[in-house]
Predict the 3D structure of the following.
Amino acid sequence: MSEVVEAHAGHDDHEHHGPAKGLARWLFTTNHKDIGTLYLWFSFTMFLIGGVMALIVRAELFEPGMQFVVPEFFNQMTTNHGLIMVFGAVMPAFVGLANWLVPMMIGAPDMALPRLNNLSFWILPFAFSIMISTLFMEGGGPNFGWTFYAPLSTTYAPDSVTYFIFAVHLMGASSIMGSINIIATILNMRAPGMTLMKMPLFVWTWLITAYLLIAVMPVLAGAVTMMLFDIHFGTSFFNAAGGGDPVMFQHIFWFFGHPEVYIMILPAFGIVSQIIPTFARKPLFGYDSMVYAVASIAFLSFIVWAHHMFTVGMPLAGQLFFMYATMLIAIPTGVKVFNWISTMWRGSMSFETPMLFAIAFVVLFTIGGFSGLMLAITPADYQYHDTYFVVAHFHYVLVPGAIFSIIAATYYWIPKWCGRMYDERLGKLHFWLSFIGVNVTFFPQHFSGLAGMPRRIPDYALQFADFNMLSSIGAFIFGFSQVFFLYIVIKTIRSGKPATDRVWEGAHGLEWTIPSPAPYHTFTHPPRITDAEAHS
Amino acid sequence: MNQSSLRTVRKLIMLALGMFGFAFALVPLYDLLCELTGLNGKTAGAYVYDPARESVDETRTVRVIFITNTNADMPWKFWSEKGGVEVHPGELHTVNFFVTNPTDKVMVGQAVPSLAPGLAVDYFHKTECFCFERQVLQPGETMEMPMRFIVGSELPGHVASLNLSYSLFDVTDFVDLSTEDAANNPS
C-alpha cells in the first residue's frame, strides 16, 4: 500500500498544484474533500441556528403562560426548527460525510461528477438564506409546522410561503444532484477488487439512501409545486371547494416523508457499523445480513406512510395494513441492533469518544424505535397522536440517533481529515454532557405526551409544568454542550497532537491506509484491495 | 466522466423525472382509489331514478342525518329544513336546504358533500342536489334548494344510520361572476 501512496505523491508534484488560495478555493472547488468540508461546516452552522430556535421554544415552555414570545412567533420557531434540522443540519451533514469518505473508502480519486458536486453544495446557502429571510418579512415565515399540511400552508399561509416553496425546490434539487453523484461514484468508480459485497457499510447505506432520495425528493417537489399552483394559479389540488382534497396532501407528503426519516437514519447505521468493529477489535458481525436489513428497511419505508395519519379517517383494512407493515420494520432493525451487540460481544472493547457516542446511539435509538412501535399500534395511536409522546419518539431517533452518529463520525474521522487528534478528555466530557442533556430533555416528554400534552403549543395546562421545566433545563445543557463541541473541533484543527496514519489500532478500511491528514488528491492510481482492508 | 458513469447518470435523471411525474399521477390515482373503495365519503354525481327498478323495503328503516357547515370565512347562513329523516330503502325523498347571503355583495358558494360511513357511498343516490352546481346569491337573497335522494335497498344490513354533511365554501374569488350569472340564473 505505501508504495502506491508514495508513487502517487511524487506523481502529484508535477501534475497538480494542490488547493487554490483564498476564497476562490471554496467557491470553485471540485475536490470531494473540500466540498465535504463545506457541507460539514454548513450543516454545523444550520445545527446551531436550528438549535437557537429550539432553545427559544424551550425557554417559552419553561413555565406555563406566555413569557418571551407571541404564539405566532412560537409557531414560526417550531416550524423552522424542524425544517432547518431536517433539511439543513442532518441531511447536508450526511452528504458531507459521504463526500469525504465514499471516494476514500472505495479507492476512487474523486466523485464521479465533481462540478455537479460543487453546484449541489452551493445551492444550499441560497436555499436557506431564502427560507430564513422569510422570518423578517411582513406576516412572518412558515408557521404551519414542518409537515406544512394544506390548507394551513395554502389558504391560511403567510404571504412568504412562496419563498418557502422555492427554498424547498432548491433543497430538493441539491439533494437529487448529490444523490446522483453518490450513486454514480459508488457504481462506477470502485477500485478493482472492491466488489459490492466488500464495500464498507457506510458506503452501502449511502448507496441505498441515495436511491431513496432520488425516489422521494421529486415527490416532495411535486407536492410543493401543487401548493404553488393552488396559491397562485387557482387550481384546487388541496382545496375541497374546487373538488380537491386536503387529506391527499397528507398522503403525498408522507409518501415522501416516511422514506425521508430513513434517509436521516440509514447513513447513521452505516457510521455506527464502521465505528463499533474498530473499538471492539472484531469484524462486524453479520455483514451480509446488515446489507440485506438496510435494503429491506428501505423497501418497507415506501409502504408504511399512512401510519402518520391513522386519525384522518381510514377503513379498518387500511389501518391494519399500515399497522402490520410498520411493525414489520422492527425485524430488519432488530437484526441490525443485535448484530451491533454481537460485534461487541467478547470484543476487546475500549471506550474512546466515537465509541461512546456509537454505543449511546445503539441504546437510545432502540428506545426511540420502541416508542415507534407503540405509535404503530393503531388503537393506541389515537391517544398518542399529536402529543409530546410523538415529539419524544422522533427526537429519540433523530438526536441521539442521527445527530449522535454524525458527532461520532466527526470524532472518528477528524484525525484523518486534519491530521490531528482531538482532546480525548474534552471529547468524553462532551459525550457525557450530551448524553445527560439529551435524556433530561426528551425522556420527560414521553410522560407529558402520555398524560395528554399536545405538541406545537406555546402554552400548556399546569399539570405539565414540572416535566416541561425539566425538559427545558436538559435542552439548555444539550444546546450549550454543542457549542463546546465547536470549541473542541476548532482546538483539534489548531493545536491537536499529530495523528498517525492508521489513527485507531483496530481500524480497517482504505481510508486508514493513506497518510493523515489525507492528501488533497488520493487514489489517483487505484489501490490493491487486501482482505484486511475489505469491509471492517 | 466515463461512459458507464454517463449511463448511470442518465438512468438516475430519468428516475428523478419519473418520480416527479408520479407525484402528479398520485392525484388521479387517489381519486380513483377513493371512488373504488368509497374511502373519503365523496358521493357520486346525479343518479337517474327508475321507479321500475327500485323496490321499496318497507320492513327496514334507515335514519339519514343532515349536517350543514359553512367553511371558515364563509358569511352565508346555511341550514336544512329537517335535522334528519327516517326512510325506507328504495324510497325517493326530498329535503329542502336553504342559504342566505347576508352581505351586500354578490357571492358564489359551493357545497361539498361527505357521507359517513364512507363505505355506504355506493348505496346513497342523489337525483338532484345543489352540490352539483355553484350557487350565485345577490345581496340579502335567500335560496331554497331541494335535494332528492334514494337510499339503495342493497345497503348493508349493519348500517342503520347515515350522516350526510355539507360544507359550504366561498368560491367568489375563483369564478368569473359575469359568466356564472348567465349560466346559473337565466332570468
In short: Strands of chain A lie at 420-421, 497-498.
